[in-house]
Design brief:
Shape: extended
Mean pLDDT: 76
Number of helices: 2
Largest sheet: 2 strands, antiparallel
Strand order of the largest sheet: 1-2
Number of domains: 1
Structural class: alpha+beta
Oligomer: single chain
Length: about 90
């Protein structure tokens, strides 16, 4: 399985990581839904793909490299998505 993240969600997460102290990241992320509708409900809405798990297929015979991923995760290693990790 491969974990994929919506590009817009990834952009928000990267912005937050650069601009918010690490000790507050989770609490800020949890508070966003509370104010999101209040701030942006007047705009047309489109769904975010969020996080998705998809099938992992090795196509070129390369083996996953677990050293590049977080503990408990395995790198896709197929060359199609650099650094993509799977559960």
């Amino acid at each position: 399985m491969e974990l994929q993240i919506d590009g817009d969600l990834q952009s928000v997460a990267e912005f937050m990581q650069k601009n918010i102290p690490a000790a507050k990241l989770l609490s800020v992320a949890e508070d966003l839904p509370k104010i999101g509708r209040l701030l942006w409900a007047r705009y047309p809405q489109e769904p975010s793909l969020g996080l998705m798990l998809s099938e992992l297929t090795l196509t070129n015979g390369l083996q996953p490299n677990a050293n590049e991923c977080a503990p408990g995760m395995h790198c896709a290693g197929d060359g199609s998505v650099a650094g993509a990790c799977a559960l």
